[in-house]
Write a structure and sequence with these properties.
The chain is an alpha/beta fold and 172 residues long. Helix content is 48%, strand content 17%. Helix 3 runs parallel beside helix 4 and helix 6 crosses helix 7.
């Protein structure tokens, strides 16, 4: 049976995912990067489901660390704060897929069976709010997550940017 490591700082979600995914994998769980890496040193992990935001930590950094530990590990990044920029970064770092919360068991299983991210492209035009979110995420990535530099680049007050980043993106 393949092993799955679930890394999410939300204890309820982690427990729910563990219960459901235990039907298909031997499941380990961790709330942060340190615990996740410790589990990987003790056990052979085939797959990892990593949340993008782990409290103050980044799931993207953990993705790189997990793949440095075991380059054959299949990693799927999931987030409630999806953006094209973070999806691209996750894939560039070696994640095999990127999911937006809430996710179903079927979506998770399908994501792990893919050897590369889905190629279906939705041709719908994004709403202005979604375009703004995507642009902010891209500029934030260009400035390595620095809020002050991003706000200057966007010609926006720093607190306004912080408020926009705290909101979940619109799905349109």
């Amino acid at each position: 049976m393949k092993t799955l490591l679930i890394v999410d700082d939300d204890q309820v979600l982690r427990a729910t995912l563990k219960r459901v995914m235990s039907r298909y994998h031997h499941v380990y769980e961790a709330a942060d990067s340190h615990s996740a890496l410790a589990i990987c040193k003790q056990h052979r992990i085939h797959r990892a489901l990593v949340d993008l935001k782990l409290g103050e930590e980044s799931g993207l950094v953990l993705t790189a660390d997990l793949l440095n530990h075991d380059p054959t590990m299949h990693i799927v990044v999931m987030t409630g704060y999806a953006s094209i920029a973070t999806a691209i970064n996750a894939i560039k770092l070696g994640a095999i897929n990127y999911l937006t919360k809430p996710v179903s068991t079927e979506e998770i299983l399908y994501a792990f069976n893919e050897t590369r991210p889905g190629t279906d492209i939705d041709n719908q035009t994004m709403s202005p709010k979604r375009l703004e979110w995507e642009h902010i995420q891209r500029v934030l990535q260009d400035h390595n997550g620095n809020i002050t530099q991003t706000a200057k680049a966007l010609n926006m007050h720093r607190r306004t940017l912080q408020r926009k980043l705290q909101k979940k993106p619109v799905s349109e």
